[in-house]
Amino acid sequence: MWTDPDLARKLNEELNLHRSVVDQWDRLSVGLEEFELYLEMASDESPEEIAEVERAHQALGAELERAETSALMSGEYDRSTAILTVHAGAGGVDAQDWADMLLRMYLRWAEREGFKAELVDVSPAEEAGIHSATAIVAGPFAFGMLSSERGVHRLVRISPFDQQKRRHTAFAKVDVLPELADEAPVEIRPEDLKVDTYRSQGAGGQHVNKTESAIRITHLPTGTVVACQNERSQHANRETAMRLLRSKLFELQMAERQGRLDAVRGENREAAWANQIRNYVLQPYTMVKDRRTGAENGDVQSVLDGSLTPFMRAWLEARARLGREPVPADGGNLAD
């Protein structure tokens, strides 16, 4: 453990996964006992006691739903740490702002669900928003949950960048990969790498944008590019960038050898019209609707604040029912 940090990290991740299963079982057991106790003690004449029964019932139901969601994790890499990337698509400044909104949505979701999210690279746009950003989301079944988000996301709203207050449509693409650095048999030769250093492009502070600590690595044979700029140390940024590169190269290797790219990553679609997996409509009405499962929520703000688990669960249920990843059917959804 002390001499092999990679092994230590892998074992800790495995330990956390097992611990999460035990903790979930304990919470279910305690919740059931509390519910039964309140049920025995409650009387029809006491509104306070009835309220306690309802509270315990809701808490138990929510915990059971989380356990059922974990049981839906049947994918080969569902237990892995997730590498989440957001790219601005068609829509100009609105698309760049939309990409930034999506990034915030996923970071808020990770915080809500107890995942550790590490923002490793951000490419700010000139006027507003971002061109792209990459985050590593760690925790039990992080990749399994975030797999549902791969694809094009469409936003319809009154543009804050249009002086005439017209309705605009913007697109952004979300890509999710499993982090496979510890298990991926990928050979990376130093002579195949082009390493560039640059100053971090974040908000700054006492260090990050004053030294060339950010790293960009290009794998010359494949043209694969990864970057990391969140750490103070150039060495730490290089280590994280190499983790990203190894996972991306393993993905390419899987595609070449076994034709499994779609199974790992999903179909590669342009971030533009007719390709979206989910619509977020703020004008003329408010609705978030998934075109693959039919799941919807009229409270758009709560979704943008990270209330994504119901959409993810609907996707996981559809995957379990179909035996494959759900996709929009002829521009509609599975509910149709």
Descriptive report:
The protein is α+β, with helices and mostly antiparallel strands. About 40% of the residues lie in helices and about 20% in strands. The chain has 8 helices and 11 strands. Strands 2-3-1-5-4-9-10-11 form an 8-stranded mixed beta sheet, sandwiched between helices. A 3-stranded antiparallel beta sheet has the order 6-7-8, covered by helices on one side.
Spell out the blueprint of helices and strands.
Elements: H1 5-41, H2 47-71, E1 82-88, H3 93-113, E2 116-124, E3 130-138, H4 142-146, E4 151-158, E5 167-178, E6 193-198, E7 214-219, E8 224-228, H5 234-258, H6 261-265, E9 276-281, E10 287-290, E11 296-297, H7 300-304, H8 309-322
Parallel strand pairs: 4-9
Antiparallel strand pairs: 1-3, 1-5, 2-3, 4-5, 6-7, 7-8, 9-10, 10-11
Helix pairs in contact: 1-2
Short description:
With 336 residues, the chain is of the alpha+beta class. Helix content is 41%, strand content 22%.
- Measured as a percent range, the helix fraction is 40-55%
**Estimated structural class:** alpha+beta
Low-confidence stretches: 203-209, 331-336
Report how far apart the termini are. 53 Å
User: How is the main sheet built?
Assistant: 8 strands, mixed
* DSSP helical segment count: 8
Provide keyphrases for this structure.
single chain, 336 residues, alpha+beta, Double Stranded RNA Binding Domain, eight-stranded mixed beta sheet, three-stranded antiparallel beta sheet, 41% helix, 22% strand, globular, disordered C terminus
